[in-house]
Every structure is written in structure tokens, then in C-alpha cells.
Design brief:
The chain is mainly β. Helix content is 9%, strand content 62%. The chain has a twelve-stranded antiparallel beta barrel.
Length: 351
Amino acid sequence: MPETPPRQEQPTLDCSARQQARAALGGAASNSALVAAGVTQDIIAAALDGDLQPEVTAFGPIGSGSPGQTSSSFMVSGYKFLSHDGFSSTSSGQSSFKNPEFDEQNYGLTVGLRFDGSALFDASPRSVTFGVIGNYTHTEIDVGRVAGVPGPSESGEATVESWTAGGFGLVTDGTRYGLLTVTGTFGAPETSGKVLPLSAEFNNFALATSAVAGIIVPLGDSKLDLRGGVNYIHATSDDYVDSGGSRFTDGRMEEFSGSISARLFQTVQLEDAVLRPFVQGGLNHRFHYENELTVDGEDFSFDDADTSIFARAGIDFDIGSSTQAYLAVRGDASEDFRAIAAQVGLTFKLD
């Protein structure tokens, strides 16, 4: 008769530790809606860096054509890794506590169409650009162990599939510019606990908008791009019940932030190509931030550092008369997190 395998003992947790473990995993998964929306905004801004100076940028000046005529398509793929020390949390049922650290990585693909809308406003060719985008992002999250809780080294993990659609408008005279983006994101997180062997599936939604303005200043053979902007993201999560019967409700995230940055770049004209190497540094600051979740009637809120800095470097280049590409790496850091991202993008002229 075969031997019965020994029963694996589950860790004995008090009520507060159970709630913290559930909230830590649920909060990190819900926060993915903010992350996915922010990633898409960054991608749009990066993809349009080469459009700020119509006389030297992708493929040179183009005729405005008929209103609505497609000028080019673009495709951007990227990878980002983030290591977070954990949110500072408070709950309605206990004092403040520190959530466990978590690691997050995401990768995805963005495709878009843009067209020269200058003729609609009797403006110079390539001075007004409109576009639409679609994005898919896959996110993986590993949440560390709640302090003082025995068992595995991780509380759990989550995977999130996110889809984003939106539009943008860019106005530039080659020296000054403004960029407005509006996007909507749908996400489908799946969580799996390790300390508590529980799982859940739910949906989240996010609306994001950003406005950026800047000026390009000549500096000898180089140019300095000085820009500032504001961002607003609002996200909600569906109410759901995990496999253990715990009810998660009122998931809500909201962020209003601003950023300033400087980008130094140079345009190098070659026989069959145009190169634009660049370096960029900047600061982001949140003026308002809410990240809330209710677990079995107990309210939790999550917070982290409001100010972060970033650095970015890369190169834009035109290949012949119909293709533009760029490569870039970016690092972000605050008191609570560090992130590194890599991006590669392609633009194809259609007309």
C-alpha cells in the first residue's frame, strides 16, 4: 500500500497578518493600472521626440496632404523592471505598517498611426500632428513576505494583461511645442498567494491624460530641449472575491503629478541618414495621490515617495526616406523604488 505523503502545514497567522498579506498582493496588482497607463504616456512622448523640429526630423518636411491623410505609422516595444521597497500603509483596523517589497517587470508593444493635420488650421506643413495608438502590456509582480510572517520568502505573485487605446495631438513651430495625450486602459490581473494559498481574478480600468509644453534652445552644434508637463491618472478595480472567500471592494487609485526635464541632443546629417543622439534628465513630483482598497470591510491605503528623478539616453536615426528608429534606456529612482527600462521603436512613412 503506497505511503500517504506527509501533510504540509500551513502557517498560522493572526487576523491582522492575514489581512496585510491579502492587502499587499491585492494593492500591488491594482496599482498595475496606474503603471500601465503611465508606461503608455511615456512611450507616446518618446515616439514623438523626433517630430519636434519638422525641418530636420523623420524624413524631412512632408506635405500636409488632404485632411486626415495618414503620414506614418509607428511601432514601439519596451521592457521595464522596477524594484520597490514597499508601500507605507494604514488601515481602519490597525496602526500604520510597512507593506512588503515587490518586484515588477513589464514588456509590451505599442502601434500607432499619425497624420499631418496642418491643413486643417492653415498652418505650415508638419506643424500640427494628430495620432491614435494601441498598446498591449504584460506585467509580472512578485510580492515579498509580510514582516514577521513565517513561510515562503514571497507573499504571492500576480500577472496582468493590459490593453490601452488613445489619441494625441502635437503642435510645434520647430522651437516651441505642446503635446496632449488621452488614453484609456483595461487590465486583467490574476493573483496567487503563497503564504495564504489563495487566488483571484479581476479587472481594472484607468483613464490617463497628460499635457506637455517645451522650448528648444540652440547650444552651438547641439540643442537643449526644456520641457514641463502635468499628468492625471484615475483608475478603479472591480469588486471581487478570492478563492478563500475574502471580499475585495472599492479599489481606487488617483494621481496628479508634474514633471520637468532637460534633453540635450544633436542632429548629425549623413549621406543617407540623420542621427540624433541624446541624453535627458528630469524630476517628477506628485501633488496628489490616493491608492485605496477594502478587504473584508477593512479599509487600506497605500503610499510611497512623492518625488522621483530619472535619466534617459539613446539615439534617434532615420534610415533612408521611409524609416525612422530609436533606441533608449531610462532609469528612475526615489526613496522607495528603482526602475530601469529599455525601449526600441520604429516609424514607417506610409505616404
